[in-house]
Specification:
By secondary structure, the chain is mainly β. The protein has two helices and 16 strands. Helix content is 7%, strand content 58%.
Length: 214
């Protein structure tokens, strides 16, 4: 059994996120989930993260969230959050913890992360090259938070991560991709929203325990 720390995980590191325009018809959701979209499109988030010491786990991650979703609990109350379609990591403990604690669809991958380019090759055969644009403007202190909603075994699983960082504008885009199967369709057909993107320098975040919603 792969060991991982109990939540919350106090994480530190660097990240870069960018919004993309996603075709709603290309998003394959779990049963009972509906995508929040307008005119047939949603706003997705693509991110690359480098978790560094003194984080309890140090690893790299690629996350693709094609949009915000809504699902009903058994009592009819709605639950909302970003749905994670793909999440690639290069650490077995992170993979096990993500799947078991938060129902996140983590897969193993190999990362090469440079100053202007990131190369990722996943165990499902996907190969992506990401272009990291030049830094623009000053980095200002800011708070951030994200809520995800996943389908667990007979329940909804909601995850919340929140923290603070020095934030600056910086673009992120998929420069090339190969071997993407149908589970990657929503990313393969997504379009960048111009040069938008946000770099989180020296972030500190808390990955909270899961909320299991019935």
């Amino acid at each position: 059994m792969t060991r991982y720390p109990a939540p919350p995980w106090p994480m530190e590191g660097w990240a870069l996120f960018a919004p993309l325009l996603v075709r709603a018809a290309d998003v394959r959701l779990p049963p009972g989930f509906s995508l929040e979209s307008t005119g047939g499109f949603s706003i997705g988030l693509l991110g690359v993260v480098d978790y560094r010491a003194p984080s309890p786990l140090a690893y790299r991650e690629l996350v693709w969230m094609p949009g915000r979703v809504r699902a009903e609990r058994r009592d009819g109350r709605p639950a909302r959050g970003y749905w994670v379609a793909k999440m690639l990591v290069d650490d077995a403990a992170s993979l096990a913890g993500g799947r078991e604690l938060w129902a996140l669809p983590k897969q193993m991958a190999r990362f090469s992360l440079g100053e202007r380019e990131a190369r990722i090759e996943s165990d499902d055969g996907a190969r992506l090259t990401l272009s990291l644009g030049p830094r623009r403007g000053p980095a200002l202190p800011a708070k951030s938070a994200v809520v995800t909603l996943q389908r667990g075994e007979g329940e909804l699983v909601r995850f919340r991560g929140e923290g603070r960082a020095r934030v600056a504008l910086r673009s992120l885009r998929v420069a090339s991709s190969e071997g993407l199967d149908d589970s990657w369709r929503s990313l393969a057909t997504a379009r960048p929203l111009g040069p938008l993107g946000v770099e989180l320098r020296h972030f500190r975040a808390s990955m909270r325990p899961a909320e299991r919603l019935r």
